[in-house]
Specification:
There is one protein chain. By secondary structure, the chain is an alpha+beta fold. It has one domain. The chain has three helices and seven strands, in the order αβββββββαα. The strands form two sheets. The chain has a five-stranded antiparallel β-sheet with strand order 3-4-5-6-7, with helices on one face. A two-stranded antiparallel ribbon has the order 1-2. Helix 2 packs antiparallel against helix 3. The longest helix has 25 residues. The termini are far apart.
């Protein structure tokens, strides 16, 4: 239903789209890699959320020193009414291991690493320079 010009624009944009889409088959992983999803929580960009399509968990990482690390189990707590919050990643990983098991704690470590990379990569792509 698109004319030639609009089809060219849509084709160019499609390659820049980073997330899952209703126009493509949903994939929980590709070539052994998880399908990660990222979201900046607030306009101050002080927190970043990360989920993966193959796991029921969500991790919120602080991008400042005023926010806590936060883990939620979306399968058992879809409204996130009982989050696990800690002031350090080490504390969070230990508590996740004790409450949710080794698989969940390993996911948290991996999610944090991917989220840290994603945050730095966005800063690089946008030429962000901190004033602090």
């Amino acid at each position: 239903s698109l004319n030639r010009k609009d089809m060219a624009v849509a084709s160019d944009l499609l390659h820049d789209y980073e997330g899952q889409s209703l126009i493509r088959p949903y994939k929980s992983s590709r070539n052994g890699r998880r399908a990660w999803n990222f979201g900046v929580i607030n306009s101050g960009a002080s927190m970043l959320s990360v989920t993966s399509a193959d796991a029921p968990w969500r991790l919120v990482i602080p991008l400042d020193r005023a926010s806590q690390w936060r883990f939620t189990d979306l399968k058992n707590d879809p409204l996130e009414l009982e989050p696990l919050e800690k002031w350090s990643m080490e504390q969070l990983v230990g508590d996740v291991r004790n409450l949710y098991g080794e698989e969940a704690s390993q996911w948290v470590v991996q999610a944090d690493a991917v989220a840290q990379w994603w945050a730095w990569e966005r800063k690089r792509l946008w030429g962000y320079k901190s004033t602090k």
